[in-house]
């Protein structure tokens, strides 16, 4: 397979490779970038890994270019100062720097921060009110739910009692139906039933007079 420029090389470093690596890294230092970014760019130019470029820089190249590194740092500092000055002279108040700031810039910046803080505080209070409203609704629904459960349990007990009473009544009537004839005829078994003044069903002897049995 034909190798491309991007193919990772394993051969030894040459003087030309060191010069390219130094040029790229020094450029990133002057522009305020990082050495890691320089290693990444150099890796693409040299066909090596960024780790290999970094190792070569720290092991050999950096020692040979100490003077150029100091000059690049001074250049970077000068560029930064010039940029700050240009921002101040150009009236770039929306992005005040952390070093040279006029009182007007400081005041504008603080006002913006105050407005931002007030905005978020207002949203926080609104969220708190909404949270309290939902909490009250939840507590009300929970109370209603407990009441409904209590009523349901009471209805279940009442229903059980009604079912038991109904079964007992059906059993009484069934025994009475089996013990007596219809239309006042003689009662088999020697007894019949009547309802007393309290509404209770009682058994009476069949030999009593009809008027007394009624």
UniProtKB/TrEMBL annotation:
InterPro entries: RsfA-like (IPR014243). Keywords: Coiled coil. Residues 124-158 form a coiled coil. PANTHER family: PRESPORE SPECIFIC TRANSCRIPTIONAL ACTIVATOR RSFA, PRESPORE-SPECIFIC TRANSCRIPTIONAL REGULATOR RSFA-RELATED. This is Prespore-specific regulator. It comes from Alicyclobacillus macrosporangiidus.
